[in-house]
């Protein structure tokens, strides 16, 4: 019995000695191949600029970004994200200037911003985004960051302009809040008049119904300009003219000059000062602002440093809907890049930045993906307002057009011009810009 067993054992040893080097050679080749695959990924510096995203527990607004960078760098050793914060005061202008002098960062916030797309500053990311991936997003989201068949960004969240209300000031004057955040223009004006008053005789304190910044590069005015049915553009052409446009301009003029319900700081272009008048000085009952500011308000409220607030949409006029205009999508784009390995790594980073849609809600944005539902009542109202928001048009020169509208209306308010003349001045100025 021992002899067959001994023979079998010898055969196994011989077989092992013969084939072991072969298997070791295959193993080593596989390890080298895997190592080479890892080494093929980009290693180096990726520059990245972004605006703050304040939230509860992060009033500065950059912890979200810093944590995502830290996790990404841990996941991809050898990749360094060189981050530079932008401020809301001059950050957009800095991006524009950097595009002109060739110093754009590798990754930048773009949204549905046609300027960077039209000037060919961004890399399309179509090859990384398949149809199944696109189906995860809500209707219109991918289209907002696409142009001529190319996708130019990865969306983080959605936003628009809304009206934030100081509920305490409404209660003090026994004014009913707009039901479900909806009101018509007459109801809105009546509330603003009641909320505009003075206190004291010697040292008067002034209180205002409305704060609405007329600083460049914002979309605060459009919800009032469009409320009687005017259109800002039609088939990629400027179309804000005619009786309905004049009527919208007149309603803006009335708020400033006839009813005198607007905080004068609105005309100074100091957006931060107006914000402080709303949250700190508390002399402005209603503030028109971008909806993601809700995260800052919730942060202050969680610390007991803020009044009760609510969210409303623009008032309704002849159009019957609270229509407005906004970039609507906050997204990240990639600067034009020839190095394919670097481009792929940059795509991985912006995908990594935007994938946590629960965090997006905490930052004050409405989720862009279908599977994430907003449950907070105020956020639901913002989402409804987004449904009534048109995305800014995709034609060259829109930024100059928008800023011309703001400047001409601001000038008209200061010089007591009539609505027809202001509308015609805007039309004539725009015709010079687009031809």
What's this entry about, in short?
The protein is α+β, with helices and mostly antiparallel strands and 435 residues long. The protein is built from 17 helices and 17 strands.
Say what the CATH topology of the largest domain is: D-Maltodextrin-Binding Protein, domain 2
Distance between the termini: 103 Å
For the record, the CATH architecture of the largest domain stands as: 3-Layer(aba) Sandwich
Give the percentage of residues in beta strands: 15-25%
Number of domains: 2
The major β-sheet equals: 5 strands, mixed
Number of strands: 17
Structural class: alpha+beta
Folded structure, characterized:
- The chain is an alpha+beta fold and 435 residues long.
- The protein folds into two domains: 44-158 and 329-375, Periplasmic binding protein-like II (D-Maltodextrin-Binding Protein, domain 2, 3-Layer(aba) Sandwich), CATH 3.40.190.10; 161-326 and 397-434, D-Maltodextrin-Binding Protein, domain 2.
- Helix content is 45%, strand content 17%.
- It has 17 helices and 17 strands.
- The protein has helices at 2-40, 63-75, 91-101, 114-118, 131-134, 141-144, 167-172, 185-194, 222-225, 243-258, 271-281, 294-302, 340-354, 357-362, 377-387, 398-414, 419-434, and strands at residues 44-50, 79-85, 107-109, 146-147, 150-151, 154-158, 161-166, 197-199, 205-212, 233-234, 237-238, 284-290, 309-312, 324-326, 329-334, 366-367, 389-391.
- The strands form six sheets. The chain has a five-stranded mixed β-sheet.
- A hairpin with a 2-residue loop joins strand 4 and strand 5 (150-151).
- Helix 16 (398-414) runs antiparallel to helix 17 (419-434).
- The chain starts with a helix and ends with a helix.
- The mean pLDDT is 90.
């Amino acid at each position: 019995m021992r002899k067959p067993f001994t023979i079998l054992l010898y055969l196994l040893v011989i077989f092992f000695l013969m084939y072991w080097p072969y298997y070791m050679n295959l193993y080593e080749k596989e390890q080298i191949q895997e190592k080479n695959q890892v080494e093929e990924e980009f290693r180096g510096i990726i520059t990245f600029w972004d605006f703050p995203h304040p939230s509860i527990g992060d009033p500065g607004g950059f912890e979200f970004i810093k944590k995502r960078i830290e996790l990404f760098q841990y996941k991809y050793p050898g990749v360094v994200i060189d981050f530079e914060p932008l401020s809301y005061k001059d950050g957009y202008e800095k991006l524009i200037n950097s595009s002109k002098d060739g110093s754009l960062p590798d990754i930048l916030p773009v949204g549905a911003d046609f300027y960077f797309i039209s000037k060919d500053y961004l890399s399309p990311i179509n090859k990384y985004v398949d149809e199944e991936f696109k189906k995860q997003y809500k209707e219109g989201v991918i289209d907002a960051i696409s142009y001529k068949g190319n996708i130019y960004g990865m969306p983080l969240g959605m936003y628009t302009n809304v009206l934030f209300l100081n509920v305490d000031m409404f209660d003090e004057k026994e004014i009913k809040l707009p039901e479900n955040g909806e009101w018509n223009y007459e109801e809105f004006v009546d509330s603003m008049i009641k909320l505009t008053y003075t206190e004291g005789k010697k040292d008067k304190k002034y209180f205002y119904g409305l704060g609405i910044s007329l600083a460049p590069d914002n979309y605060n005015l459009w919800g009032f300009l469009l409320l009687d049915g005017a259109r800002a553009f039609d088939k990629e052409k400027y179309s804000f003219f005619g009786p309905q446009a004049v009527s919208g301009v007149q309603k803006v003029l009335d708020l400033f000059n006839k009813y005198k319900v607007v905080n004068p700081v609105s005309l100074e272009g100091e957006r931060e000062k107006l914000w402080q008048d709303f949250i700190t000085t508390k002399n402005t009952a209603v503030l028109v602002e971008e909806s993601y500011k809700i995260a800052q308000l919730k942060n202050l409220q969680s610390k007991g440093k803020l009044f009760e607030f609510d969210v409303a949409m623009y008032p309704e006029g002849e159009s019957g809907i609270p229509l407005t205009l906004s970039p609507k999508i906050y997204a990240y784009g990639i600067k034009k890049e020839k190095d394919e390995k670097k481009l792929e790594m940059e795509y991985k980073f912006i995908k990594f930045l935007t994938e946590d849609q629960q965090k997006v809600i905490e930052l004050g944005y409405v989720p862009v993906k279908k599977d994430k539902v907003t449950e907070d009542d105020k956020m639901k109202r913002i989402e409804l307002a987004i449904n009534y928001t048109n995305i800014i048009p995709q034609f060259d020169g829109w930024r100059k057009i928008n800023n011309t509208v703001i400047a001409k209306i601001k000038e008209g308010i200061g010089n007591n011009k009539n609505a027809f003349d202001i509308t015609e001045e805007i039309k004539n100025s725009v015709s010079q810009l687009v031809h």
